[in-house]
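Milestone M4 deliverable, item 7.
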Amino acid sequence: QVQLVESGGGLVQAGGSLRLSCAASGSIFSINAMGWYRQAPGKQRELVAAIASGGSRNYADSVKGRFTISRDNAKNTVYLQMNSLKPEDTAVYYCNVDLIEVGVSHGMSYWGKGTLVTVSS
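Output delivered:
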């Protein structure tokens, strides 16, 4: 079965940096889009950044210029480099991958369990 494993979350002071990683494993035929979402206490889950198979990227307005999403197709891994972190970035960050599993005729969306990022003021 397909699994997503996230890492890199933790506690950081405002202005600091963190790098999140998400590795997909299992019987994967192909991967389309990969992205990061976050959910802060009392708020809805929102898209932070996404990257398509061709390399095109999009970001939430609140993180443009501070965050960078990238992917390593050979490793089935997506990264989120977060710089100049602010307290309002505090949230659980979730990896999301749109992929086609071997033996399945259509694609599906998979979610990681989430990794907590806490930014102190």
